[in-house]
Design brief:
Blueprint (H helix, E strand, L loop, with lengths): L1 H21 L11 H4 L2 H8 L5 E7 L4 E10 L2 E11 H7 L5 H13 L2 H6 L1 E3 L5 E4 L4 E5 L2 E8 L9 H24 L4
Antiparallel strand pairs: 1-2, 2-3, 3-7, 4-5, 5-6, 6-7
């Protein structure tokens, strides 16, 4: 009898705690440092070269912060850029409601345009949802919106400008996905 009373009491406590926790509102996604999400060392490893400079700062529409690393190669400048916006920052800016709101609006706007819709790729396995718009990678994960673009020198020769542009977009897509796999591990 004593053992069953202890078990019943323990079960009751567990149920009460579960009910109490389910009624606590989830903590809003707070600001993250973009340069911590993709460090200089990680960007250098991605492009296999030392960064020539770095720029970090606040951004708006949507609110958040950005970090960019620049690389000089054979007369050109290339970069690894990440922008991160939290739902908390976005909402306080007063334009959009959340990271998901911005993501959904951007996706709908691009899908509504025939030219940009052709370049769109929905991606699985990156955050909660992701798309490549032909230029940069958009990811929503929890209460965060990420925009990632990694560009490197494009090697080779091409039959046409169209072939070169297609190869560049594919290279940028692959590099941006590699950066995303590093970044997403740091976002809970």
């Amino acid at each position: 009898m004593k053992k069953s009373t202890v078990l019943l009491g323990t079960a009751l406590i567990v149920v009460c705690v579960a009910i109490a926790l389910s009624q606590v509102p989830a903590r809003a996604a707070g600001p993250l440092d973009a340069c911590s999400l993709l460090t200089k060392a990680e960007a250098e490893a991605l492009l296999n070269q030392a960064s020539s400079s770095q720029k970090a700062g606040k951004v708006s529409a949507p609110a958040g912060n950005q970090c960019a690393y620049f690389f000089k190669k054979k007369g050109g400048t290339y970069s690894a850029k990440v922008k991160v916006s939290s739902s908390e920052e976005i909402k306080s800016e007063g334009i959009f409601k959340s990271a998901r709101d911005v993501f959904d609006r951007q996706k709908r706007a691009r899908m509504a345009n025939a030219d940009t819709a052709q370049k769109m790729r929905s991606l699985g396995g990156l955050g909660d949802e992701a798309f490549w718009n032909g230029y940069d990678l958009w990811i929503v994960k929890g209460g965060y919106l990420l925009t990632i673009l990694v560009q490197d020198q494009l090697a080779g020769s091409f039959k046409s400008r169209e072939a070169m542009d297609k190869a560049r977009a594919e290279q940028d897509f692959n590099l941006s996905q590699r950066a995303a796999s590093v970044i997403l591990l740091k976002i809970k």
